[in-house]
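EI: anyone free to look at a 130-residue chain?
SC: sure, send it
EI:
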Amino acid sequence: MKCEVEVRQTDNHGTITARDNYELTGNLPKCVGVECLCEDADFQIPFNVGEINLIYQFGDQGKAETCASPSAIFPQIKDSNTKQIVSGTLKKLNALSEKMCAELTAATKRRKLTERDHSIKTRLAKAKKS
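SC: here you go
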């Protein structure tokens, strides 16, 4: 059975600043999309799984640092799909405020580490040690 769950983050005024979409397979949630508020334009910017993975891999404290590594490797990328993911991610990150980018990066890191810690491989390895 597959279930979908949406988690919303709001500011003090009730405005949705972030929305995470998860698919539940059994009892394991997997993030399948994230939306962040573009404060200047007052709309949500969607990030897909590939873009989320890129943010996890290269995410750093600030927006400039988060964008620096993907920007540096972009000219060497040969695969058109990967090139599209990197360019789309950079464009979306640059549309976010510094604060929202830092929050997205931190949340992505926490989410991925939690997913890793709850993966079946990790749980099996822990069970073998017991």
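EI: The mean pLDDT is 88.
SC: 👍
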